[in-house]
């Protein structure tokens, strides 16, 4: 049976997901067969597994850090917020309904517990170590009796718990003490250590507080982790609040991503953001839009509602004005649907509306459907024009997650899907405006394809009259370097010997090049 360690937080967004990824890489580099696990995740950033299931982006990232293929057992329950305090419930990779918070927490989540237990048992049979991530805080009194993500999971797995606090936001010591005070005695006993995360200061000055914390709680501080600019894919869109746009420097290409209220899979743009010579900004109003070199409409979990928001904010008018002056626009998934002429919802899959007019920038009609497409895909570029023309025939990879089908009214598709999962297919994808300056696709992760991204950026630079710039970014290799760098830093600031002892591991974690 696998050994387990669980990370719980004093609140959401304390850095549990990133620390879990670091631990997955630390165990992996120490020679353990390791897997991540989060019983219940609430996030709009998700991805597809090789067998076509949907799971949270954080657990996908953690699986890659662990050196294994992602699978839905690693995140058996995924909640994707839609609108009006409702969420789509994904169970073992497939949608099973849309529920309000009262209905979900009142009884439905209890019906899911057997699936959580089974998913964990499957992983525990196949792996040596499981890194478990909790959700929110274990001390949310109003939900505690019926939760399926924190202490109940720790008890099921027999996992010691490391309680994580974010010191950068302030009040970390009080949050730790308060959380422990609100736990039941048997739950408090499960907490085997404390982690102070996102520290920016002088450790010598902090030491008296750490000593006090250990005396007060009787729990050891296993590590003080510095504030990390890790650059790994983020799970929560709260990070976009911190991504304030900066002025575009001379020689830079400016890309504006519309920050929709229900923006989904914004990790689509990580590769663009990492490129030298690119200023990628998230904007919410027409004043902030400015005059970018490229506008991107991202995915959305509430496409029609976000389209109405776009109109109310004056962004539709601003985008069309820029289009009239030659600014290119790209739509991904929900953003692609918005660019079309019409979005129909005859079965009221998303809202009570029968449909809504799109921006009319692509000759496409979308119809929402109750079945959801979740696939890893391969395909090739078929479109023409200044952006896709030079890439015709290029092989690309990505994934689909959508509940609508879009139909070309006229014109040509942008891509041809040749494989879904392990199955060969021959399916047109996306659409292209007659001048080739506007295009859309259902392929998430399209920008992760290095040759595709490099050529599009080269075209944008040429249109601006900027000198050509050789891109050296290999996105996949860069991801691996970031995993290793993250693990190295975390290992240096974490007591790995004590962690191994807490978990009862039979092989040491130190001595693998990461430091102790």
UniProtKB/TrEMBL annotation:
Source organism per UniProt: Neomoorella stamsii
Protein name per Swiss-Prot or TrEMBL: Cobyric acid synthase
Q: Which pathway is this protein assigned to?
A: Cofactor biosynthesis; adenosylcobalamin biosynthesis
Signal sequence extent: none
Q: Any idea which UniProt keywords this protein has?
A: Cobalamin biosynthesis, Glutamine amidotransferase
Entries under InterPro entries matching the protein: Class_I_gatase-like (IPR029062), CobQ/CobB/MinD/ParA_Nub-bd_dom (IPR002586), CobQ_GATase1 (IPR033949), CobQ_N (IPR047045), CobQ_synth (IPR004459), GATase_3 (IPR011698), P-loop_NTPase (IPR027417)
| UniProt key word NADP | no
Q: Which GO terms describe its biological process?
A: cobalamin biosynthetic process
HAMAP family for the chain: CobQ (MF_00028)
Q: Which family does it belong to?
A: Belongs to the CobB/CobQ family. CobQ subfamily.
Does the entry feature the keyword Zinc, yes or no?
Answer: no
